[in-house]
Design goal:
39% helix; single chain; two-stranded antiparallel sheet; alpha+beta
Amino acid sequence: MDEDPLADQFPIPAAPSLRRMVDWDANNQPILTLAPVFTKAQVAEIIDKAVAQPYVGSEPEFREMTNLEVMLLKLARNAAATGDRADIGDLLDRILGKPKFTGEMVSVTKSYESFLREKAQAVDVEVVDPLS
């Protein structure tokens, strides 16, 4: 394997620890191996460095661009070509920095006891107060 000329500029951080995992040998037998564990910050750093590297693909139109620039341009072209609302929304979300998923906030106004009483009444079951 050739030496990476950008390895000094973009070093990959070392994993802080190893975790045990099962792998399979040539005879399809399980063996215990060790795999690196990366923190969320280390994964973010690796991604930042990977997308900042120069693109080395064969398309001449992308010469002197970074991996990130090529990915965004290809994503934009696909969204424009298909007109797919989901593709366009994904592109705009990435550009605007919106998270891929946002959860819905739900407020609970019933107590657990009142919820159970309603369920019992719906199936016509007698509700007995356990404290009486």
